[in-house]
Write a structure and sequence with these properties.
It contains 14 helices and five strands. By secondary structure, the chain is an alpha+beta fold. The chain folds into two domains: 217 residues, no CATH class; 160 residues, Alpha-Beta Plaits (2-Layer Sandwich). Helix 7 runs antiparallel to helix 8. This is diguanylate cyclase.
């Protein structure tokens, strides 16, 4: 009798591991991972953007104070000088916008999307700073040309914007600076516009390089954390959930079942004479057999609350949500039949010529806890083993009591 094929490599790697191996030089994941990355909570980034907006508010107030000092001799010309009036309007408009959006973000108002608010404030600061500097230049008062360079670097700081978003804001700011500068500088003085844009572009390149390296590291950390969390809750050989995840999920399923008046079926599965199988064919073939069994269990998980786990060695478990008596019996027998259909030769088995399983199926009772349900299912499993193995035994009494609960689950 031919021996089974040797074990294949471990279960298929999770998508985040594949993504990490393939790389992401353009800072893009696969569509599913990209959605998960963007939805991942970033409380530290939120805090940083709040602090940055507050600092921007304080700095803008400081510039207003400097304007008061620099222009105190011209206060009487406020309403007669259009440039002075424009300067005051710009300062007040930006100040009010900064204060309003900062307060809105502190209250996590859902009407304010954080990236849009941050982008708007950065643009508003750049535009306001450009107009203010050009106005001071026209008035012949001291002004800070380097402020715009600092703002261009600030756009790429970790304020909640991804690199592509920050780059879009930077391009929009550069175009706006160009247009405002062309409007405010006479044709004979426009040489300075070239130098202004050149320095701003250099600052944007430096800031963009730093933002790229930072986002790349953040994305890599996201993939590594996701992989570690996956490994902490999965069995490395089969890819099924491990015992820890099984215990947590069983309690969750029972809790939801009590709330919705739905039964939960727990199947305990044991590969018959598996030690003899390993002795006859080797541990590599045994690993392959467990992987095939895991595939059968996974094929029976059809609902979000269904759960397949490897609880230890050759023992596995299956949690099925919302089953009635007929469905529970049918699914248990179907599981045994599907394992038979694998036709994994087992010449050392006294039960059959191929690998078989024994199954104990218990249905949750009202208000039952996970430990009690597990104990009943485990007892039924050993009852099936005592009765010759290669079969499924269900708790008939519990099945009868659950038959009245409404379910819509196909077998």
């Amino acid at each position: 009798m031919a021996a089974p094929a040797p074990a294949t490599p471990q279960h298929e790697a999770p998508s985040y591991r594949l993504q990490r191996e393939q790389g992401f030089r353009w800072l893009n994941f696969s569509p599913e991972l990209e959605v998960a990355y963007r939805r991942a909570p970033k409380p530290m980034t939120d805090h940083q953007s709040n602090v940055a907006l507050f600092c921007g508010l304080v700095i803008w107030l400081a510039f207003i104070g400097m304007d008061v000092i620099r222009l105190q001799d011209r206060a009487t010309d406020l309403f007669s000088n259009p440039r002075l009036l424009t300067l005051v309007q710009v300062r007040i408009t930006v100040l009010m916008a900064l204060a309003g959006c900062w307060l809105a973000l502190l209250q996590t108002d859902p009407r304010f999307k954080r990236p849009w608010v941050v982008a708007g404030m950065l643009y508003l600061l750049t535009l306001g700073g450009t107009i203010s500097n050009d106005t001071h230049a026209a008035l012949g008062t001291p002004h800070e040309n380097n402020v715009l360079i600092l703002l261009m670097v600030v756009i790429f700081l970790p304020l909640g914007l991804r690199l592509k978003e920050a780059t879009a804001v930077a391009v929009l700011c550069l175009v706006s600076v160009l247009l405002v500068s062309l409007a405010n500088h006479p044709e004979g003085q426009r040489e300075s516009i070239f130098y202004r844009l050149f320095y701003l572009l250099v600052a944007a390149c430096i800031g963009g390089m730093g933002a790229y390296l930072r986002e790349y590291a953040q994305r890599e950390q996201f993939l590594l954390r996701a992989e570690l969390e996956w490994l902490a809750r999965r069995d490395a050989l089969t890819g099924l959930h491990n015992r820890r995840a099984f215990n947590e999920h069983l309690e969750l399923a029972l809790s939801v079942g009590r709330r919705d008046n739905q039964p939960v079926a727990l199947m305990m599965i044991d590969a018959d004479h598996f030690k003899l199988y390993n002795d006859a064919y080797g541990h590599a073939a045994g690993d392959h057999a467990l992987q095939r069994l895991a595939e059968v269990l996974q094929s029976l998980c059809r609902r979000p609350l269904d759960h397949a786990a490897r609880t230890g060695g050759e023992e596995m478990a299956l949690v099925l949500y919302g089953v009635n008596a007929t469905q529970a019996q049918g699914l248990s027998e179907q599981l045994v039949q599907r394992v038979r259909a694998l036709a994994l030769a087992h010449k050392a088995s006294p039960t059959a010529e191929h690998l078989t399983v024994s199954v104990g199926c218990a249905i949750s009772l009202p208000l039952e806890e996970g430990k009690s349900l597990y104990t009943r299912a485990d007892a039924l499993l050993y009852q099936a083993k005592r009765q010759g193995r290669n079969k499924a035994i269900a708790d008939i009494d519990a099945l009868s009591s659950s038959a009245q609960r409404p379910t819509e689950r196909p077998v």
